[in-house]
Amino acid sequence: MCFKGKVFSIEEFSTFDGPGIRTTVFFKGCPLKCMWCHNPEGQSFEKQIVKNTNGCIECGRCLDIGEKLTGKRILVNESVNVCPRNLIRVCGVDYTSQELVEKLLKNISILNDSGGGITFSGGEPLWQSQFLNECLELLRGHTHLAIQTSGYCDETIFLELLQNSNYVLFDLKIINNDKHKQYTGVSNTKIINNYKALCKSKTLFCVRIPLIPDVTDTAENITSIAMLMSENGASYAELMPYNKMAGGKYAMIGKKYCPTFNEQKDVEIHKDIFDKFGITIKIL
Prior knowledge:
By secondary structure, this protein is of the alpha/beta class.
């Protein structure tokens, strides 16, 4: 069977999404609604019109065609072709697993020579699990395969995908369940359970921790993450400092970026906590 899926970006020559040089495929759609999301165009499972406002001359052609076709001054697919600055695009491309794999295999020798491979990210790739698993099966044996995930899915799905993966980049955000719901919109029960299953598996993995000021980077939360890692035999984590420019993408899809987080603390202050639990950290 050939499953179909939705991708919003394919980034080549990535060096931050697993070992070596990689091609990272960003799947569209995510069940989490993290207040700090750096890829808001990846949240919706539907295609979206994206407009880069930098360089816009406000000629109105993009809205004129929308009004002509719908009676409302909105962006539509046809707006892409009338923008004189090519600032508008459709975010979300449909692929069959075979189509996507054929595209990804074109640069496979370069990736392999660097000790790299292909990483599937998002959005949340596990929520297009059949499409993802078929891609992994078709690529298996050709290159190193990684998944970057929040871990939010049923455990049976997670364990099946592990069988076809060489490496997992697993986000741990907030350990307190109430706070996790507050800031991401979902419980972390499935995430914690899948993390423990990952630790018991033979699949290599890396914990990634987004450092959101006064949300995830508190001493209490960092200690809880380090304790969870230590209790399950993990000894390495990558810390991802908050990017204040993250809000810039929201206007491109017609959304407002509401959170106002404080300045990032010196991320080195967390090292003592991780040292206490025998965990090596890398700051990205």
